[in-house]
Amino acid sequence: MKKVFLPLLLFLIFPLAIKAQTKAEAKKIVATYNLDLIRKKQLEIKKKEDQEKLKAVAYARKNNLPVRTVKPDGSISELMKLAPAGFPIYYATDHISNANASKSTRTNHLNTGGSLGLDLNGQGMVARVWDGGTVRKTHNLFSNRVTVVDEPSSTTYVLHSTHVTGTIMASNALAAAKGMAYQANARTFEWTNDLSEVMDEVQQGMLISNHSYGTPLSSNGTPLPAWYIGAYSFDSRDWDEAAYLSPYYLMVAAAGNDGFNDDNPNPLAFGYDKLTGNKTAKNNLVVANAEDAVVATNGTLTSVAINGSSSQGPTDDMRIKPDITGNGTELTSTSSTSNTATASLTGTSMASPNVAGTLLLLQQHYKNLTNNFMRAATLKGLACHTADDAGEVGPDPIFGWGLLNAKKAAETLTGNGLTSWVSEENLAQGQTFTMTVKSDGVSPLMASITWTDLPGVANLGDLGENDPTPALVNDLDIRITRNGNTYYPWRLDIDPTSPAIRTGDNNVDNVELVKIDAPTAGDYTITVTHKGTLQTGSQNYSLVVTGITSSFSLTSTTSDLVVCSDQNATFSFNYKQTGSGTTTFSAVGLPTGAVANFNNTSLSANGTVTMTISGLSNVAPGEYFIGIKGTSATETETRYKTLRIYNGTFQNVVLTSPSNAQSGLSTSVNLKWNSQDNAESYTVQVSTSPTFTTLILNQITTDTEYVVADLNQQTRYYWRVVPSNRCGSAIAANAASNYFDTGILVCGSSSFTATDFSNAAIADVSNSSASVPVTVTGGYAIGDLNVYINITHTYVQDMTISLIGPAAIGSPVITLLKEPCGDNDNINCTMDDSGDAPACSGNPSISGLIAPFDSLSALNTLPADGVWTLQVIDPYNGDGGSINNFRMDICYVTPALGIATDELTNVTVYPNPTKGIINISLPELSGETTLKLYDIQGREIAIKTTNASAETLNIENLQEGVYLLSIENGSSKTTKKIVLNK
Fold it and tell me: 12-414 maps to which CATH number?
């Protein structure tokens, strides 16, 4: 294994609590999620996590490293995985009163008795906490509101986990230890498999999770490699993808406690650049740690200092990280030693749950105001926008956007439309959004946009140290203009020790904020645009504006809607106004054919406006952004809602591959079709009958392709795709259908063995690679493919082994083995889709017939000619080896010997495999049946006719191998593959 290693200890920060919102609320949250895709991604991540853990444990045993340690002070470290360059990554915990934290972030102003009169205590809200062990759920301050999901029967309670959970939701029975959301519920998890468990919880409507752990700069005096620190890592990308798939979910994470540690060998600047792992993600909220703030009774911040141990940013691409600051110094919270015990701890682990619990209250407040929850981007943007600036003027890599100000955030939501603006918008490709706001001339005018960005390109060590390439994918821009003057958003200077600047666009952050410090009262124009191409065609974003004044407001109390075209869509809005005057209402963005009606076409006092959209049967299916526009004598205001329309009238799905009447296909075929705006799912049907009287496949999918396998050779198959949605389903009998013919697989005569081993050696240093080519000739179309590999290598789990196809067919990459097994040596196996999982025992540890990581059937029907390459990548230090042998066994497809119009059913052939005698059952057949036996190359070997319902063939005199038995009766036919194994 790796002889040289760089341990990564993950500092632990403190967790949060949960108790689920109602099922109806959870269902509303996930209504727009692609749950099939999330479940698929969850399974992929879980498999990856399990493999990483097994590999890490084997590595630890070989190198005499601890897997899990618990120190006398209760702090924990646990080995979780190995980074690509081979250094071990540990999750670990480090070790103010909760009451002081609540005052610092102004959370107390939201609670019952607070100055805002909101009575926000977390009632009915659920927090999730991932941490280093079991929470003492029986603690008196938890009041039976904690659910331990992982290891619920364990009585080995952990201080850190219990303390963090208490900071989020411990009751107010003990004032000093009262949590931020002290009537909320918590669901707690052990940190193993944290990301896959998060992917599971988002399907249940999770809004916020807390993660008080991370990767410190060094362990046992050994620093991390410079490239890893500040990099947009594989962890960052994975967590960004989870957020992108679940737009209402926000991960809150501690920044780390390396403030005094200068073990980064190549920092962006001395004393900076200390964030690692998922702390460099774009879509989460990373929290720094402040000492107790000095705050006036009205919530005004007087002063605040950073705790010197708090880790500094920024990221290598100069994004503003950490995002925000909480109070985590000397927090008194629940302890694990008894049901009444408390403890005082310090760290970003404590600051993170201070913030997470507070954000839960802001979600509760928004729900009370609008009957909906905020998207994660809205919540994150609100927190950053309303934070109290601290440290350098503007954002900085120490405080981020500043100290969380829950009071200002709640006031911004309450005043939405009158003294502030909070909305969730969508920007289409090439679109420009503009709105006019009126500065109050007293407060700074501030406008910000925040969006959940697609995952970017991860640095796996191959992009170098301090790589400045932006991780941003969709680059939105916000500006404010007035009288020919343009005001730009904040961005960090290239020197992180210098104050932030605002002299141009920000092209790295997905939080952009423009601030005019001393605006003149009057109208200003806010513009939102984008650069380049929006990868998904459009981008949702959240807009927050403060320092404005308006005479009326419209606030939606209805969710975005999905309706059938025979229904109406009704949106409700609360209307408020200050002073006198009348506001009239109209619809904007109506699709052609739709009609809008209002219960009140105008109002001159507070009330409710409903906008009912009818006539949808005349509207093409699709997604529309429809606005209600209020117009008074002095201003206008427009609020947009999303309307998704389906109808019960379906067009035929366009079938794209295989093409109609295509012949000579393999027995595994990838069916593809075009998507339809009016479809939520598709039913894929395959039959041997043109009338689909019997189905060999009847599968529902939300995808636009499906692999059908185990087809018979030289058989005609008919297929169709039937669209459906919540409004109905197409009539299957009317769906367009295609047919294709499978050919005969010819095996055993087309093997190609490598002869060039000039690059076959696998070095024993990190990021080693080896490759061996094979040239395929003969003009074959692939019908089935097996790959034989023989590799000498100690610790096979270091390797990812891939088959790369010729450039002429697009250089497809099939991963054969991806860091398999554990502390095992050598490989001598054949990769076959019908194989088994590696046994990972003995020597060689992988042998026999093994199923590849990716299916080889993806190559079926492609031309085989060209240079194929077996590639081995070993990113880890230590063990080396060599590729000893590489062979490709190709079964190619030849045209069928004849295609019957109907498929014989109820025909059985046994035993199969056989030692020589074949029994053939032919029930319910009339007339003469013809039996023809072919070898795998399509040569006829024997023929027999029979009128019996059962027949026997003796093939003992033939050589071992695969044969094809054709059975024909009238116009019906079937072909069976026979395996002779003496």
Answer: 3.40.50.200
Determine the Cα–Cα distance for residues 295 and 287; give it in Å rounded to an integer.
Answer: 20
Which residue type does 99 have? A
Highest mean pLDDT among 17-31, 865-879, 931-945, 968-982: 865-879
Distances (CA, A) of 712 to 688, 844, 940: 10, 35, 18
In three-state secondary structure terms, 53 is helix
Structure confidence by residue, pLDDT tens digits, 204-256: 999 999 999 988 887 656 678 889 999 999 899 999 999 999 999 999 999 99
Q: Which amino acid is at 935?
A: D
Q: Is the pLDDT of residue 493 over 80?
A: yes
Across the range 487-498, mean pLDDT stands at 97
d(CA 666, CA 894): 9
Q: Is the pLDDT of residue 137 over 60?
A: yes
Q: What is the DSSP letter of 8?
A: B
Q: Are 444 and 437 in contact (CB under 8 A)?
A: no
Helix then strand count (H, E) for the chain reads: 9, 62
Domain ranges of the chain: 12-414, 436-446+465-646, 660-742, 751-894, 904-980
% of the chain exceeding 70 in pLDDT? 94
Do 299 and 115 form a contact (C-beta atoms < 8 A)? yes
Q: 904-980 architecture in CATH?
A: Sandwich (2.60)
Arch. (CATH architecture) of 660-742: Sandwich (2.60)
Which of the 8 DSSP states describes residue 72? T
- Cis amide linkage into residue 72, ω under 30° from 0: no
How many Cβ atoms from other residues are within 10 Å of residue 874's Cβ? 27
Instruction: Report the CATH number of the 751-894 domain.
Output: 2.60.120.260
Mean pLDDT of the chain: 90
Tokens 């689909």 correspond to what residue? 692
Q: Which amino acid is at 49?
A: E
In this chain, the answer to whether the domains covering 660-742 and 904-980 adopt an identical fold is yes
pTM above 0.85? no
> Counting Cβ atoms within 10 Å, is residue 834 exposed (0-12), middle (13-18) or buried (19+)?
exposed
Contact 535, 454 (CB under 8 A): yes
Q: Is the peptide bond before 911 cis (omega within 30 degrees of 0)?
A: yes
Name every residue whose Cβ is closer than 8 Å to that of residue 692 and which is 6 or more positions away in sequence.
Answer: 685, 718, 720, 732, 733, 737
For the domain with range 436-446+465-646, which CATH number is right: 3.10.150.10, 2.40.30.10, 3.30.1360.180, 2.60.40.10?
Answer: 2.60.40.10
How many CB atoms are closer than 10 A to CB 18?
32
- The alpha-helical segments, DSSP class H, found in 33-148 are 35-62, 98-104
Choose among 400, 11, 458: nearest CA to 224.
Answer: 11
> Exposure pattern of 79-91 as b/e (b: 16+ CB <10 Å)?
bbbbbbbbbbbbb
Tokens of 970: 């009238």
What is d(CA 115, CA 253) in angstroms, rounded to the nearest whole number? 29
Q: What is the DSSP string of 117-144?
A: ----S-TT-EEEEEESSB--TT-GGGTT
CA distances from 800 to 442, 813, 817 (A): 61, 12, 6
Q: Go through 212-249 and write b for each residue having 16 or more CB atoms within 10 A of its CB, e for each that does not.
A: bbbbbbbbeeebbbbbbbbbbbbbbbbbbbbbbbbbbb
d(CA 158, CA 514): 44
Cβ(616)–Cβ(568) below 8 Å: yes
Is the pLDDT at 19 greater than 60? The verdict is: no
Cis peptide preceding 15, ω within 30 of 0: no
State which H helix or E strand residue 342 sits in: strand 342-345
What's the rounded Cα separation, in Å, for the pair 684 and 645?
A: 23
Length of the chain: 982
Single-letter amino acid, residue 915: K
Statement: residue 385 has pLDDT above 50: yes
Per DSSP, helices labelled H in 482-605 are none
Write the Ramachandran bin of 113: left for phi over 0, alpha for psi from -120 to 50, otherwise beta: left
